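User: quick one, sequence for these tokens?
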């Protein structure tokens, strides 16, 4: 997983097919990326609901939210529409976004790791969390504290 203090250069594609490079996303705003284990993961879907409930906190801090899914663009597009996800949903441009940040499949290669990163306005990772346990993929209190601790731009 990306280390705190690093500046990643992920190449992502959103559900409209538009390239979303992190260095462009972070210009003028922080970015939070939630990496789901799978669009079919109940715990990951519950985490997206929690993130949406905290949207005001993200917006007030100027933090854009991206939800990265390991499946392809077609699955991501259908899932975003079905779940009415209010955030940009992204996939890896080549391979998965998860692989680009070091989230691998564990437990005999069957369980996709999930996690999240928070980048400041300069694109520097200020918070990172990894979980193989889907129920522990998003810690609401930790993320909100990390947002509150972001340096002023």
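Assistant:
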């Amino acid at each position: 997983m990306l280390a705190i203090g690093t500046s990643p250069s992920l190449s992502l594609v959103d559900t409209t097919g538009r390239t979303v490079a992190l260095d462009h996303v972070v210009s003028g705003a922080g970015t939070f990326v939630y990496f789901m284990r799978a669009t079919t993961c109940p715990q990951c879907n519950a985490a997206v609901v929690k993130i949406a409930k905290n949207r005001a906190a993200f917006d007030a801090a100027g933090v854009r939210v991206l939800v990265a899914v390991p499946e392809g663009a077609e699955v991501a597009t259908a899932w975003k529409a079905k779940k009415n996800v209010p955030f940009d949903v992204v996939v890896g441009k080549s391979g998965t976004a998860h692989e680009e940040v070091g989230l691998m499949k564990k437990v005999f290669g069957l369980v996709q790791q999930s996690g999240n990163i928070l980048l400041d306005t300069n694109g520097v990772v200020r918070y990172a969390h990894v979980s193989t346990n889907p129920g522990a993929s998003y810690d609401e209190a930790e993320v909100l504290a990390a947002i509150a601790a972001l340096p002023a731009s």
